Structures are given as C-alpha cells and as structure tokens.
Amino acid sequence: MTAAAVPGIRRGRAGRREVAVVGVALADCGRVDDATPYALHAQAARRALADAGLEHTVVDGLASAGLGTLAPVEVGEYLGLRPTWVDSTSVGGATWEVMAAHAADAIAAGHANVVLLVYGSTARADIRAGRRTGTLSFGARGPLQYEVPYGHTLIAKYAMAARRHMHQYGTTLEQLASVAVQARANAAANPEAMFRTPITVDDVLSSAPIADPFTKLHCCVRSDGGAAVVLAAEEYVRDCRPATPAWVLGTGEHVSHTTMSEWPDFTVSPAAVSGRLAFERAGVRPSEIDFAEIYDAFTYMTLVTLEDLGFCAKGEGGPFVEKNRLTLTGDLPVNTDGGGLSAQHPGMRGLFLLVEAVRQLRGEAGERQLRSPGGDLPRLAVASGTGGWFCSSGTVVLGRG
Question: Which phi-psi region, left, alpha or beta, contains residue 344 (left: φ > 0; alpha: ψ -120 to 50)?
C-alpha cells in the first residue's frame, strides 16, 4: 500500500518517487557513562538498519550534524559509509526534521535511494566527567555580540517569550505546568524514559527556579543517547522489514531570527510557517492529525507550537493544554514517549520525534501504543522540531500506509 492509496492523502508531483521511513531506532539513552558519541551513532545506525531489514551497503545518503569538525564526513568514515549524497544542515533541535525534508526531496528526485539520519550525544556524561560545562555557548560574534553582554542565556530567551505570551493572552503558570505533568504521565508508560514517576502541577510550580517563569520541571532533562532514521524510495519498501511503512507526506522548514530584537512577535514560533507548508504539501488539515510529536525543551514550546501548527487558535494554547488533551488517552496525544521533559534530551532531540512517530504509526510503541476506541492504529502524525530560541523550525507529516 502506498501513500497514494491512503484515503484523503494526495500523491506527490508527477515523476517524483514516494518516500517512506523504513527503519527507526534509539541507541542506549538516559545515563550512559561508558560510550562515546561516535559509539552511540554507530549503535543507533546498526539498530535502525536492522529494523529496516537493510544492509549498510545500500545506504547512499547520510545526514549528520553536531559531531566532529566535518560532521557527515567523520561520522560516515566511522560507520564505514561512502555516501554520494550528504547533508550537514545544523539549525539546532529542528535539524532532523529539516534533514528529513531534504532527504525526502533528494530521494524523490532520484539523487539518493536510501538515506540514513543519525545522531548521538553524551551531553550528560560529559558534564559529569568534567569534559564540558552546563552552559551552552553559541559564541559572541556576529549578531549575537549585541545580546551576549546582557547575559541572555538560551533558557532566559525562552522564558522571556513565555512571559510575553502570559502577558498578552493571560496564559497561566498552572497551564504551562500542566504540559510537564502530561508529558510525565505519558513517560510513565515508556520503559525507556528517564523519569516516570507522576508529578502534579504543584510539583512543577514548587521545583527549583531556573529562569522566571520556568522552574526546573518546566525544563527538559539532560541525558545521553542517540537515534537513527532510515528513509527509502518506494521501490525499496517491499524489501524492508516493516509491514507498515510510514510515508513522508509533506514537509516544511522555516528560519526566523537569531537576535531577539529581530523576532517580530515572541508569541509566534517559526512552526507557524513550517507547519502550514507541511500540511499544505501533505494535503491534510491539522484536524485530521491523530497525534503530534513536538520539540519540548521547555513547556512553553509545546503550548505555542500547538497554536502555530493550527491545533488551536493563537492565544488559546493555555486552555487547550490544561484539559489533559495531551495524554495518551487525550483528544490530541502529544509527545507520547514523554518528550524531552521526561523521556530523554541529549541535545538536538528532533530525531527522537521522528522515531516515536513512526513507532506509533507502525503499532510498535508497546504499553503507550495509541489506538482509536475501535482498536485502530493512528493514521496520520506530525513531528515538529524547533531550533535555537525559536530560531528555526522543521515539520514533517507522516502517514501509515
């Protein structure tokens, strides 16, 4: 069954091959003190190719960012790959959705057949071992030189945006906290999540202050881990292991700003553009989506991205999230693995969104598997990654075929 056969889904432009995600996997995640980032890349890649039922020799495309001086070259060498198509786009957490879009376009156009997206990080272990500090510096040259002297940390920038939303639309701390509570509820059904013990809104509000209005539980966990995704052209799908591939139906990408003074509206994320493009290209509406995987380094990211993807109107994100809609049994399950707030967050987490979306569509999510009241598997999913401090966004719509 191809994407063209899924009711209501529009086939791509004539002459372009359809593209499916045929393999997904995680490397060891959480607390991994005895592995290098390269080892986590290799572990995730091997597992994803095994999941697809493909040999590494068929991989002719590689996308990688965040490791080494020449990311795809060094990673490719370590993995024993000699790709003829590469991508090293690096736009923060949105990197992997943007790379998936680029890979799908390359495959559709015939420039590659099988593309591996792979990531690994020991962000947590490096801090424990003293190999790096807890503060991530983006440098002080170029446009950033005008903000660095004033002490704007990455967390502070997100906090400023959240405060603006609260001021403009009346969004409350309790509503933001409910995002973390629901993420933890989803994580409780995920044996791979770092934190599974239920929390309450009061727990979130009373945790240690980080950057007003965020407390510790408003912020993502810091973990080690890795992930990999294999995309392939339609003619390869029949030879792959998954009985139910996840087809790439539409993608969108957008970059917004790097300096806060160039951000026109703190209450609008770049997902407002990338999401619109992805849905238009997929030929589906937000109301048709069964579940969403959304980048959640902070609770506000989930809330504002839901607005910008069109799941609720601008300014209505607070009331939307406070009614337990985001849980596994809610109207719109979000971050079904527990997200970056509870499951794992080893840095640029966007690839984990794609892994979880595909597992859900294939019916391989175990205890946290989504099903309709009639027992059917979900049919449509969206994964939307955010990079920097709302600097970039990539959105991918996937369909079960």
Answer: beta
pLDDT digits (tens, 9 = 90+) for 204-253: 999 999 999 999 999 999 999 999 999 999 999 988 887 789 999 999 99
Q: Cite the DSSP H helix spans in 211-298.
A: 234-237, 271-282
Is the Cβ–Cβ distance between 52 and 364 less than 8 Å? no
Rg for the chain, CA atoms, rounded: 20
What is the identity of the amino acid at 298? F
pTM, 2 dp: 0.94
Q: How many helices (H) and strands (E) does the chain have?
A: 13, 11
CB count in 10 Å sphere of residue 241: 12
Q: What is the pLDDT of residue 127?
A: 81
> Which stretches in the chain have pLDDT values below 70?
1-15, 133-138
Question: Would you say 201 and 38 are in contact if contact means Cβ atoms under 8 Å apart?
Answer: no
Instruction: Please say whether the beta carbons of 158 and 72 come within 8 A.
Output: no
Which of 49, 26, 179, 18 lies closest to 115, judged by CA?
49
pLDDT of the residue at 131: 79
Beta bridge partners of 252: 395
Distance CA 196, CA 190 (A): 8
CA-CA distance, 87 to 6, in Å (whole number)? 30
Q: Are 348 and 96 in contact (CB under 8 A)?
A: yes
Name the helix (H) or strand (E) containing 130.
none
The DSSP call for residue 298 is B
203 — phi, psi (to 5°)?
A: -60, -45
Q: 142's torsion region: left (phi>0), alpha (psi -120 to 50) or beta?
A: left
Beta strands in 238-333 (DSSP E): 246-255, 291-294
H helix runs in 260-372, sequence order: 271-282, 299-308, 317-321, 339-342, 350-362
